[in-house]
Write a structure and sequence with these properties.
0% strand; 81% helix; mainly alpha
Length: 243
């Protein structure tokens, strides 16, 4: 299990309204409103319906990052305080946690494939297709946007708030589940219920992102671990397209 960090037992640095705004910006803005806005802007600029240009998508992602960082200012300040004088020890935890994460994913994915015959998640298939069609956009989304935004939302906001309000273990599970659910949400809407098995893959990732955040008290190692995981996954996908 994850060893509890007593330094995080202090009061939540964010107001409840700030946490609510941060989570709403992601779950309502990123998942629903911003895509609609992107489609609307694309239509106004090009006349193309039901689509979003790569340039507009870059702007949407950029806005999402900046607004999320703005809303997360108290968590970021706390993370700097937690990391002061400990940067090297925090960075050392990243490769160690990644090795355990990688081993866990091997076990989870092998089990899912054995039980269901599903070899990759719909999210992975989408990333793979996007890597061939819009490589710059997917690299930006996977290596910059996702690590920053998702760690600030799921660890810095959701987990940090629940950790102080509810039980420690319950907060870990909710953060893991929410992170996993968001990555199979599109499959649920489309009726691809077999893909829901892959929630366990993303929950495993969420566990290690929570773990390194709890161990260090800083969101920065979680962002870097997330980046490292996505970078290796993208590299493997890219190699399969050229070999």
């Amino acid at each position: 299990m994850i060893k509890r960090n007593a330094r995080l037992d202090q009061n939540l640095p964010m107001l409840r309204s700030q946490v609510f705004a941060l989570i709403t910006n992601y779950f309502v803005g990123y998942l629903f409103l911003y895509p609609l806005l992107g489609v609307f802007i694309t239509y106004q600029l090009t006349g193309a319906a039901d689509s979003m240009t790569q340039e507009v998508a870059f702007v949407i992602y950029g806005f999402l990052i900046l607004f999320t960082v703005y809303l997360s200012r108290p968590i970021i300040k706390e993370s700097f305080r937690m990391a002061k004088g400990r940067w090297f020890s925090h960075i050392k935890k990243i490769p160690i946690n990644y090795l355990f994460l990688f081993a866990s994913l091997l076990i989870v994915n092998t089990t899912i494939t054995a039980l269901t015959g599903v070899e990759t998640s719909a999210n992975q298939d989408l990333v793979f297709q996007s890597l061939k069609e819009s490589p710059a956009l997917i690299i930006f989304a996977a290596l910059i946007m996702a690590p920053i935004v998702e760690e600030l939302v799921f660890r810095g906001g959701l987990y940090r708030a629940l950790r102080n309000r509810y039980s420690y273990k319950r907060a870990i599970f909710i953060s893991m589940f929410a992170f996993g659910f968001i990555h199979v949400f599109a499959s649920l809407l489309s009726g691809d219920f077999m893909d829901l098995w892959n929630i366990f893959t993303y929950m495993a990732m969420g566990f290690f992102f929570v773990k390194i955040y709890e161990e260090t008290g800083s969101v920065f190692p979680a962002i870097l671990l997330h980046f490292f995981n996505n970078a290796i996954a993208l590299s493997i996908m890219w190699l399969t397209t050229v070999l």
